Amino acid sequence: MAVQIEAFYDSATGTGSYIVINRASNQALIIDPVLHFDLNSGQLSFELANQQLAFLQANHLQLKYICDTHAHADHLSAAAYLKNHTDALTVISQGIGEVQQRFSARFNKPVVEDLTQLYDVLVADGDILTLGEIEIHVLATPGHTSDSVSYYIEDNIFVGDTLFMPDIGTARCDFPGADAATLYHSIARIHALPGTTKIWLCHDYPPPGREVSLQTTVAQSREHNIHINHQISKHEFIHRRQAKDRTLGVPALLYPALQVNLWGALLPAKEDNGRRFIKIPVDCKGADCAGI
């Protein structure tokens, strides 16, 4: 039985979010939901998530799972918001704990040892979730982050940031815990799938003259991806990826996104004045910091 896929696009962050539907059981899951956050004003909005909730209601669908592919550093996850409005379970890689530990000191936020306090379902490579009779296969695809997973559903795979459109390439590998060699092997797993398998992307940053596209195929990617295709060796890929990463700036929403996404997609607790605050670590070293 073929699943139905509805794509939603957040233009502010270039993010694709998906509702995957089993019409036979009227069940659905959401992959990589987006919570809007304006960095300049600190204003939150729920436009995309509310569009998805309205779609579910209009089509009489029960939301069973809310799945993130990894701890996003370029947008806030709406997983907790959607959970609060449905009976769905939040799903993320069990590797999220390792990533949280890496950033705990950076944000002066405590490590949560029992991750079930933050997430309902922690998945690992080879796990299978079900949507009615449809199986959702979890593939570990680290490299961009150490906790990255992909969700393989019938002839569709949702790869998070692991791959982009063939003319854009692959995800960066310069975050703590990331590794270009590991990403190479993760993409090799994806490229080993049948060529007709549809690859659904979490982001697209199209060059001038091309419209946004959130879907390619395994055959197109392994033949034409500019960073990793059948003609590019592992050594060459690592060299290209690391050279590209040295030119990249810090994502605009890095600090807000990680402070939320690594702690259950929950907003920081209110402080004694009733307000919530995102922390921005200040890097100030040596004599320049003296006296200030």
TrEMBL record:
Domain of life from the UniProt record: Bacteria
UniProt GO molecular function: hydrolase activity; metal ion binding; sulfur dioxygenase activity
Q: Domain Metallo-beta-lactamase, which positions?
A: 14-203
Matching SMART domains:
Lactamase_B
Give a Pfam family name: Lactamase_B
Any idea which UniProt keywords this protein has? Hydrolase, Metal-binding
Biological process (GO), any one: hydrogen sulfide metabolic process
- Which InterPro entries does the record match to this protein? Metallo-B-lactamas, Mito_Persulfide_Diox, POD-like_MBL-fold, RibonucZ/Hydroxyglut_hydro
Family annotation (SUPFAM superfamilies): Metallo-hydrolase/oxidoreductase
| Protein known as | MBL fold metallo-hydrolase
Q: Which organism is it from?
A: Salinimonas sediminis
